[in-house]
Amino acid sequence: MSGAAATGWPAVGADWSVVGSVTSPDQEASSRLFLPLIANGMRHVPWSVVAGRAGVPLEAHTGWEQIEARLDSDDDDPRPQFGGVDRKTLEILLDVLAGEVRSPRVTIALWLVYDELDRVGDLELTPVPRVPGADRWHDGMHVAAEIELPELSRFADDDGARFPSAVVPEHGEFLLACPGYSDSLYLSSRRALCAALTARGLDLRQVDRTRPLPDGTHAG
Length: 220
Fold this sequence. Notes:
Layout: H1 4-7, E1 29-34, E2 37-39, E3 43-45, H2 47-54, H3 64-68, E4 78-79, H4 87-98, E5 105-111, E6 126-127, E7 142-148, E8 166-169, E9 175-177, E10 184-189, H5 191-199, E11 203-206
C-alpha cells in the first residue's frame, strides 16, 4: 500500500486537545472549514449567515454556544452537524481539491467508533498501528484505505455517513481532517486552496494551531 498508510501520516501534534493535533506544520496554512448548520432538520445553512443574524463575528475559534446564546427564540432552530459533510459542501470540496492533486489516489483514515465499515466493505482496510504518544491516528482505533478522490462522495452526510478522520493525497498536497463529533473540517494546505474554497461559498477561517479545538472534540 502506498501513500500515508505506508509512509506514516503527516506530522501533527501529540496534544489531542489543540488544533495542532489535526493540522500539519508542514503546510502553508491551517484552516477551519465550518460545516453548514442544519435548520429545521432539513435545510443546510452557512455558519456565517446564522452568525450574522445573531450579531456574532464568525472567527476561526468561534464556538456554536456563542452564536446559539444570541439567537432569537423564533429562529429556525439551526444545529451543528457532527462529523458529517452535506452533499453540496462535499461536491464543492471535491471539485476544488481535484485541481490541487497530481494523482487522484488518496489514503483515508476511518475511526472505528463510528462503525462505518459496512459502508466501505469493498475496500481493503489496513489497521493503523497503535504508537503510544504518537500522532492522532496511531491510537489503535483507526483503519486506513486507499480510494480515488471522487469516491469520497460516498461519505456524504445526506446518506447518513460520517466523514473520514483524515484524507491524505498520494503526493501530500494537503491534509483534510475531521476529528470525532466535530462541527468542522480542518484543512492544512496552500493558502491559494483555502481562497479557492472560500470563493466557492464555503466558510473557512485560518486557525491558530496552538489553540484548543474550538468545539472541544478530542476524539477521532
